[in-house]
Automatic annotation (TrEMBL):
It catalyses: Hydrolysis of terminal, non-reducing beta-D-glucosyl residues with release of beta-D-glucose. The keyword Calcium applies. Residues 1-24 form the signal peptide. InterPro entries: CalX-like_sf (IPR038081), Calx_beta (IPR003644), CBM11 (IPR005087), Cellulose_Degrad_GH3 (IPR051915), Galactose-bd-like_sf (IPR008979), GH (IPR017853), Glyco_hydro_3_AS (IPR019800), Glyco_hydro_3_C (IPR002772). This is beta-glucosidase. PROSITE patterns: GLYCOSYL_HYDROL_F3. The keyword Glycosyltransferase does not apply. One of its GO terms (molecular function) is hydrolase activity. Its EC number is 3.2.1.21. It holds the Pfam family CBM_11. Residues 205-310 form the Calx-beta domain. Belongs to the glycosyl hydrolase 3 family. Gene3D superfamilies: 2.60.40.2030, Galactose-binding lectin, Glycoside hydrolase family 3 C-terminal domain, Glycoside hydrolase, family 3, N-terminal domain.
Length: 1008
């Protein structure tokens, strides 16, 4: 589902008849075929943005092997495209036009055809074309298939009318979901899986005369027309042509109200008639059919009135529009009643099938235009990472979600959808949104206020696009930097994670949920329950992952203290939803072995819901129940009985809903369990105010990416910078200095924002709006000489100081696991840049990454070292501390290792010898106090007093002074005897034990 741009486009070959000329033949009886691909070598094997043929697949073995082979029996020319394949997941090939070419006009033709060398295998081959959009990688995918059921060469003809819009996957989301054929980008073939095979094809071309139904269409303004009882609905019917040309001939539309759940003559006045759009009518002309409804005194659920359309001279609408008389007079609709009573009333009216629909969450692309929302009573939709509307704007998001909500109005009780999205560091799927530091950076700030403000900015921008639900925050306690999700954690210490959970209030508002209906708040999700940050390296069984989705093996005491503690805090803060982890839990001593969290009833029902008192609902992770042992019915039964209330089944929503109903009818899932789940879901929908306001409130849209929001992100970025070393006071820089900037991450907004930015995995380059570190430096010192050489190849003479910004490129989840094509070393190019710059001048090295990078072998040559984490879109915040506009105040949220062999390494370990300990962070805010042990004794007394008085502010200030004193004495001579008590002191500080923290710092001071 998350694969990058796949399928394909056709290229018009040099020397062939240009596709655009095909339009001239429209009036002919049968236009001549137009070649698309001859496979004679004129189109290379290449990839975007260049024109060419390229392969793709689910893993490294899935892409087919292709060649242009000479064959005596070639149907056209001398060569054919031939290939071999052995595909376990998915694989195929694409022919894309160059991205900088205009799309081609195929609208004059009936379809596309090609020669296929059949093996009579009986296998189906999927064939796709790309329509509209900016280029082949930002277009709609339309699909069909053919069956290999002959031997030898056969010409396969596919009329364009056979192609259907792909609902299971779209690389950029829907554009208009109409096959326009005027801007085509090519074709692709998905080859059969399961057994090795060979293929050959030749002579791709357009054929035949266009079907008039493809160039002229009748459309309706909406699929659903809600109206209050007694009101009149106006159904807008329009005509549209390819290229917006006037109608070539008349188009007649006959209409009749027929069928549906509303009664003709009692609930509405029947309508029947006919109208004609004459030849020459402008494309876009509209006619409105009025459907009057009648009012009675009865309280009723919603009732439907389909308006059947019969079209002559054009293609009819894809579906029949429905007028819906709104539900009215029922207690659950009364906003004055308590939520509990509204839930009970609605639940008592619902069928088992409707309840099962509420427990089903589908991905937006899977439901296509949305007809299945009402057909299956779906309760929720989501956008997976990078699943966005086109264009990816705030207005397009709101329009898309409103369209889906409109569909839900066609259900009996008009229960609104709850739409969810992974906004894990701002509204990160939206281009132009404010992207904040990832959680690892927020943890480095040690500032609960900053965490809360970050949540508030995220909530405001997300809700302004019509989305009421955020799959955040991640409350994982990261215990191994090899984990590809390390940056989603606030840190390795549960006390730090708990301290940062103010983000929940930033997202949701008040703990009792009374703010959830505000236009700047969203329902939050605590994830991933429980232990996802503690999985053992090498324990994952998911593809090539090494640690993500693996097994967390802990004692019950460690489970409680480390992994469960943050979730109790979240429940106490009123968290609305919880998402279980893909990982498994193996509790030492219980003899049960690893249990997948989505099947762990003892933890979900027993601990989370019963013991902790969680009263929200539990939402599964993406297709996670498919990882449970057993058949699909077992997956559904086990997960729901374990306490899952809503299941994220991106594409399998029909199967899930049917299976869930069957399991209840068979008695394998109890009806009370279903009622509990649906009650929990409905409660949150009522709290969010969705029944009263299902559609997007875009009044806050102007604040998306605003200066005010970016100021919050800028402050967070500045506070997240951790100064690990600062020999000779290299930092802060002076505006009078000539600065030489180098490194791969100095001027790359994509690398700076990391994974989960615009797309699931994120990507390098200019992917959204923001300021890079280099741009921020130039803005901070406008008159200074600041030169940039990414690879440090430019001469280094004549500079006062160098700033080398290095680190990681984006990744997410198990794709980023160390050992899955990743490590913790700087790239050779970054190493070379550090060596050259730091060998030529005083230098500061900034590491932009989601986790610590191994730098020890170069540490002696580096004057200043900064852990910049993934600071988001506001590089100005990094520049603020580099130039001293703000002080360095950040502290390490995780231990910085010396080598990979030490991993995992965490505060509290008995053998603890890091490069930099947990909590380390120099400051340019104030000078350390003098006085040595005498000062520490005085600080110990002050800490004891603060602890006794329960004064967190005074306690943190006292411990902070002691920490600075210790760091000054230690310098870079961080021995195990220093590191262990120093890290322990920070844990004690986070736990509110200020006197004990100063005692540990005193121990570290004496060991230095």
């Amino acid at each position: 589902m998350r694969r990058t741009a796949l399928l394909v486009s056709a290229a018009l070959l040099t020397g062939l008849l240009p596709l655009a000329s095909a339009g001239a033949a429209t009036g002919a009886e049968e236009p001549p075929p137009v070649p698309v691909d001859r496979f004679e070598g004129e189109v290379p094997f290449a990839s975007q943005p260049a024109e060419g043929i390229f392969t793709w697949g689910g893993d490294s073995d899935d892409p087919p092997k292709l060649e242009l082979a000479a064959r005596d029996d070639a149907p056209e020319g001398d060569k054919v495209l031939s290939g071999t394949y052995d595909i376990s997941g998915y694989g195929g090939f694409t022919h894309d036009f160059a991205a900088n070419e205009p799309g081609h006009d195929w609208s004059a033709h009936k379809g596309i055809r090609f020669w296929w060398d059949g093996k009579n295998s009986g296998k189906r081959v999927n064939f796709e074309i790309k329509d509209g959009g900016a280029n082949g990688e930002a277009s709609e995918l339309w699909t069909t298939s053919f069956t290999d059921e002959w031997t030898g060469w056969h010409q396969v003809e596919i009329p364009f009318t056979d192609f259907a819009y792909r609902t299971d996957y779209q690389p950029v989301g829907g554009i208009d979901q109409n096959l326009g054929l005027t801007e085509m980008w090519g074709y692709a073939l998905t080859l059969p899986t399961g057994t090795p095979g060979t293929f050959a094809m030749d002579g791709v071309e357009l054929y035949g005369k266009a079907d008039p139904a493809l160039t002229t269409k009748v459309l309706t303004g909406a699929s659903v027309y809600p109206v209050k009882e007694g009101g009149t609905a106006g159904v807008r019917i329009s005509v549209a042509t390819t290229g917006s040309a006037p109608l070539a001939g008349p188009v007649t539309v006959a209409y009749e109200s027929a069928g549906g759940s509303a009664g003709a003559g009692t609930d509405y006045t029947p309508v029947k008639g006919e109208f004609t759009f004459p030849a020459g009518t402008a494309s876009g002309a509209t006619h409105t059919v009025s459907v009057p409804t009648l009012k009675d005194k009865a309280a009723e659920p919603a009732e439907t009135i389909p308006l059947k359309l019969t079209v002559t001279g054009a293609k009819a609408p894809a579906e029949t529009p429905q007028v819906v008389i709104d539900a009215h007079g029922l207690p659950y609709l009364d906003a004055r009643l308590p939520v509990k009573r509204r839930v009970a009333d609605l639940l008592s009216r619902m069928s088992l099938e409707e309840k099962a629909g509420q427990m089903t969450q589908a991905e937006r692309n899977a439901v296509g235009t949305g007809g299945d929302i009402a057909a299956y009573d779906l309760g929720s939709l989501l956008s997976g990472g990078g699943s966005t509307p086109t264009p990816n704007t705030a207005a397009a998001w709101a329009k898309m979600i409103d369209g889906f909500q409109l569909r839900a109005q066609a259900t009996r009780f008009q229960i609104p959808l709850i739409y969810g999205v992974d906004a894990v560091h701002g509204h990160n799927n939206l281009v132009g949104a404010t992207v904040l530091p990832h959680n690892i950076g927020i943890g480095a700030t040690r500032d609960p206020g900053t965490a809360e403000k970050a949540g508030a900015v995220t909530a405001a921008e997300v809700r302004a696009t019509g989305i009421p639900w955020d799959f955040a925050p991640c409350l994982c306690v990261t215990r191994d930097e090899r984990w590809g999700r390390s940056y989603e954690s606030f840190g390795e210490d549960p006390a730090l994670v708990k301290q940062m959970e103010t983000v929940v209030q930033g997202l949701q508002g008040a703990r009792d949920g009374k703010d959830l209906d505000r236009d700047d708040k969203v329902l939050a999700t605590a994830k991933h329950f429980v232990g996802d940050g503690g999985t053992a390296y090498g324990s994952s069984t998911t593809g090539s992952y090494t640690i993500d989705q693996g097994v967390t093996k802990v004692t019950r005491q460690e489970l409680e203290a480390v992994h469960l503690a943050p979730f109790q805090e979240a429940v106490d803060r009123g968290i609305g939803t919880v998402m279980p982890s893909y990982s498994s839990l193996d509790i030492i001593g219980d003899d049960e072995g690893p249990v997948k969290m989505h099947a762990d009833a003892a933890m979900i029902n027993g601990v989370l819901k019963d013991r902790m008192g969680f009263d929200g609902f539990v939402i599964s992770d993406w297709q996670a129940i498919d990882q449970l042992p057993g058949d699909y019915a077992s997956d559904v039964r086990t997960s729901v009985n374990a306490g899952l209330d809503m299941i994220m089944v991106p594409t399998a929503y029909k199967d899930f809903r049917t299976t869930l109903v069957d399991e209840v009818k068979a008695g394998r899932i109890s009806e009370p369990r279903i009622d509990d789940a649906v009650s929990r879901i409905l409660t949150q929908k009522f709290k969010l105010g969705l029944f009263e306001k299902p559609y997007a409130d875009t009044s806050g849209a102007a604040a998306i990416g605003s200066a005010g929001h970016r100021a919050v992100a800028r402050t967070a970025a500045a506070e997240s910078q951790v100064l690990l070393k600062n020999a000779g006071g290299v930092l802060p820089l002076k505006k009078s200095q000539k600065v030489y900037v180098a490194g791969s991450n100095a001027d790359d907004i994509g690398n700076q924002t990391g994974g989960w930015t615009v797309t699931w995995q994120g990507s390098s380059g200019k992917i959204t709006d923001g300021t890079t570190v280099l741009e921020g430096m130039k803005k901070a010192a406008p008159g200074a000489t600041i030169s940039y050489s990414k690879d440090a190849s430019a001469p280094t003479d004549g500079y006062d100081v160098g700033v080398v910004v290095v680190g990681e490129t984006p990744y997410a989840e198990g794709i980023g696991d160390v050992g899955n094509g990743n490590d913790l070393e700087l790239t050779p190019a970054d190493q070379a840049a550090v060596d050259k710059v730091c060998g030529a001048m005083k230098c500061a090295v900034l590491i932009v990454s989601g986790r610590p990078q191994l730098i020890g072998d170069r540490l002696g040559d580096i004057d200043a070292l900064v852990a910049s984490w993934l600071p988001g879109t506001e590089g100005d915040g990094v520049a603020d501390v580099l130039y001293g506009a703000k002080p360095f105040t950040g502290q390490l949220p995780v231990t910085w290792p010396k080598s990979q062999a030490q991993l995992p390494i965490n505060v509290g370990d008995t053998a603890y010898d890091p490069q930099f300990p947990f909590g380390w962070g120099l400051t340019t805010l104030r000078t350390p106090p003098g006085g040595g042990t005498l000062t520490l004794k005085a600080l110990a007394l002050a800490a004891a007093a603060a602890q006794k008085a329960g004064s967190a502010e005074a306690g943190r200030a006292v411990v902070g002074k002691a920490r600075l004193l210790v760091q000054q004495k230690v310098g870079q001579d961080i021995t195990p005897a220093v590191a262990e008590p120093f890290a322990d002191a920070d844990h004690l500080l986070l736990s509110g034990r200020y006197a004990d923290a100063v005692a540990k710092l005193t121990e570290a001071y004496r060991a230095a």
